[in-house]
Amino acid sequence: MTSSSQDYIFEPFKVTEVKFRGSEVPRPRSGHRIVCDDVNIYCFGGYNPVLPLNSIQRVDPTWSPQRPLFKELWSYNIATRKWKQHKVVQNMPEELASNAMCMNGRYLMIFGGTGAPFGNKCSNDVITWRTNPGDAKLEILNVTGIRPPGQYGQSILCHNGYFYTIGGTNGFAYNCDIYRLDLRTMKWEQVFVGNGQDGEPVGRYRHEIARVGNKLYIIGGGTGEYAFELMEIPVYDLDTDTWSFLSPKADDTLREALAPQARKCHSAVQVNTEAGPQVFVVGGSDGQSMFDDIWRLNIKEMQWNLMQKTVLPHPLHFHSSTITSYGCMYVFGGIEPKDDATSRNNTLYKVWVCIPKLSEICWEALLNFQPNLDQIDKKSLLNIGIPAHFVDRVHLT
After folding, report:
1. Where are the alpha helices (DSSP H) in the chain?
2. The CATH number of domain 16-52+61-356, selected from 2.120.10.80, 1.25.40.10, 3.20.20.140, 1.10.3720.10
3. Distance CA 33, CA 43 (A)
4. Using alpha carbons only, what angle is made at residue 301 by residues 299 and 306, rounded to the nearest 5 degrees?
5. Could you tell me which Pfam families the record lists for this protein (predicted)?
6. Which CB contacts under 8 angstroms, 24+ apart, belong to 186-191?
7. CB of 278 within 8 A of CB of 271?
């Protein structure tokens, strides 16, 4: 093995651009979604109305000027820093912008989304894929019960055997309705449907969700005209089927107390720490301005803190973020301002938002000095003493 001479420094809370290896890379996009396990990041769909002609695939196109949505499913191996496009051989939907996506064990769960023009056709199918290195046969779940309407910009999660969807829009009306699918019986049911009463949150899309116990926390979001405050957080209690509203504290560690601005089209990830569940909110827009800031919300204390040293290189919205179980957050794609206009990107940023175990830091250092571990067979890596769970991140079994 030949070693890279570049020094390694573990720099938590610093946003860095990931340098890809290999020739395959997703094209710039917005309105896509990413999720991850501790081995791969998965990217689905997205939108870009303007692509250079040299990036349009002549054979088996997954994007066209007439339908500027990406019929694409990608995985990115975190250890090898290589992208792989999975050929979707079954059930690729037409609605590929502002879907919602989460992981449930080894399965991707994809829901909702809109085609182009936005709102013209929206999906209410639940699509799953058991992650693997080969072609993708997407499965549309055969469901019964009261299905939620076709929408986009909703948030989803899996909890206690149920698949939940919260909020969204059909392009005209916005809601904060909650439906859930029992994954054992495949039956949908209504949990909450708003009727305009006092004490209900205002309908929204492109919000984010955090869950602690049986409580769902709605973070931001908006409509076509408005963005909602992050200083008022609607909370739905699944035990009592009631809404409440919490007012988190502004960051008082600065010379003057500072609160995050209202926003939509941001991203958020959640990670459990010794200090309790933390939510990290990245970028977004209030409809006029885009943001490059990253905020941390301590759910237990209901306390916002601005990550002063953790700033995006550019303001960003309609991007997507995900986080590993060991506290490394990734941000991919989105729209950034550029020369009095806007431009979509295919940049992947990473930032350690927690201090991981020493073994994770050692693993990252090893990958820095030996980036070609994927070219060494699994047995050899085990024989030189690399723990099996790290070897499995390079050589999937």
Report:
1. 358-369, 378-383, 388-394
2. 2.120.10.80
3. 6
4. 75
5. Kelch_KLHDC2_KLHL20_DRC7 (PF24681)
6. 186/141, 186/142, 186/143, 186/144, 187/143, 187/144, 187/145, 188/143, 188/144, 188/145, 188/146, 188/147, 188/148, 189/145, 189/146, 190/146, 191/164, 191/238, 191/241
7. yes
DSSP string over 283-309: --B-SS-B---EEEEETTTTEEEE-TT
Q: Report the pLDDT averaged over residues 38-45.
A: 97
Buried b (16+ CB within 10 A) or exposed e, 96-106: bbbbbbbebee
Name the 3-class secondary structure at 3. coil
Q: Helix, strand or coil for residue 274?
A: coil
Whether the per-residue pLDDT at 202 is higher than 90: the answer is yes
Domain spans, the chain: 16-52+61-356, 358-396
User: How far apart are the C-alpha atoms of 45 and 62, rounded to whole Å?
Assistant: 10
Distance CA 368, CA 47 (A): 33
Strand partners, 164: 157, 180
Place 269 in a pLDDT band, splitting at 50, 70 and 90: very high
DSSP letter at 371?
T
User: Which whole number is the average pLDDT over 63-71?
Assistant: 83
The residue to which tokens 């002609």 are assigned: 53
3-state secondary structure of 363: helix
How many Å apart are CA 235 and CA 241, to the nearest integer? 10
**In 10 A of CB 254, how many CB atoms?**
11
Contact (Cβ atoms closer than 8 angstroms) between residue 323 and residue 352 = no
Residues 345-357 have pLDDT tens digits of 999 999 999 999 9
Q: What is the pLDDT of residue 340?
A: 67
**What average pLDDT does the segment 32-58 reach?**
87
Question: Residues 299, 217: contact at Cβ < 8 Å?
Answer: yes
